[in-house]
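Consider the following assembly input.
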Amino acid sequence: MIGSLGQPLLFLLALGFGFAPTFSKAGGGSYITFITPGIISMGILFTAVFSGIEIIWDRQFGFLKETLVAPVSRIGIVLGRVLGGATVAMVQGTVVLMVCLVAGFRFDRTIFLPLALVFMFLIALLFTAIGTSIGSVLQDMQGFPLVMNFLVMPLFFFSNALFPIQGLPKALQVIVRFNPVTYGVDGLRGSLSSNHGYVFGVGQDLVVLGLLTAVLLGIGSHLFSKIEL
Amino acid sequence: MIEVRDLVKNLGDFRAVDHVSFTVTRGKIFGFLGPNGAGKTTTIKILTTILHPTSGTILVNGHDPVRDQREVRRAFGIVFQDPSLDDELTALENLELHGILYSVASGDRKKRIEELLKFVELWDRRNDFVKRFSGGMKRRLEVARAFLHRPRILFLDEPTIGLDPQTRNHIWSYIQQMSQEEDVTVFFTTHYMEEADRVAGEVAVIDHGKIVAQGTPAELKERTEAKTLEDAFIALTGHTIREEEASSKDRMRTMARAWGRR
């Protein structure tokens, strides 16, 4: 838990303070306020994907194997696992949020806080489901760096987590718009600060994220129930 | 209790199990012996529903592990080769969870857990976290857990590997006693031939995916004119060391040891 806080904190401190002067000179306002939702999403994203991928390990050397031979439905097991993983990721995101508050982040839409939590949970759920799908298919940990470098890192960097989507080159904008992280960050950012608001609108954020989560939960459950040892 | 006819399992283009047939009689302790990579674990996985066979017919407690997964799963208990306890829970919590997974009624569950924990001499340590247990204690706990839901069949995949003789003897005496008292059929694999000789009523020797001999340990020794079961085993399977390539699972196991997760 403490270990996985390191990376988001590093980004918060290095980028948050490093780019702050440039960002506010360019008229973007407080950069800490801007990237806090991005950093929270990052914390959730990493923890969530990892908790899913842990299946590779757990089914061979862990408790998961015990549940796979038990007379219970696989769907029940996978839903329990995903909810558990998403909850841990949520807690992780909340801790990051608190650290950001200490670092100078201020949210000015207190009544929207529950909505922010909903977005955090959706991000957590979506990416635990993605991690679960990957973890159910991969046979060993060898593929793990591949997933990290070619899926998770790009998902984070090619989103609106660190920079505003407006003013990006056209090609990049298309990529960013196809990235589910973008909608999570946008929803979270809009719910936390009125200054930046929702770029896509809260409705679109919720629908895109919600639908995608449902689809991925379905795929994840299917792949999980097909696991052979 | 277990009936296997013409079982075949291909893993990629490698035939891990090649037309294997055997029968395990109810209440018997059956040893499944073979060198590394012979197909023992693959067979256990198929019998316990976690791997689908390529072809063949199987009945475990009268049910087909492919079609009636749920029924088969209810009927057996298992101790895996690799640990499968939740390290972050106490011994008691691990058993509680197992009881719930197998829908053992709560009153009965409490009683049964106490009995079994006392039986494997872990009752005093019931509230300790499993991560603080030694390898032998974990194994004993796993044996207790496997019996919790009163299975008809117990599968053991190298249950005593890496344990000292004292612990091995204890574990076998628990298993033998429970098997007799509750009429549980036991199907186990091991590399310790003197162990198989001592506890197994019947053994089958598998090599390169095929059964090369089956019978009581005495019969096998007689047939090969060997003094010990180990000699009989060597006579049946040859002297060649099986050079298996380390599978991804072996690599992970090494990693697991390095990280102290065992």
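The mean pLDDT of chain A is 90. Ask yourself how this observation constrains the way the partners meet.
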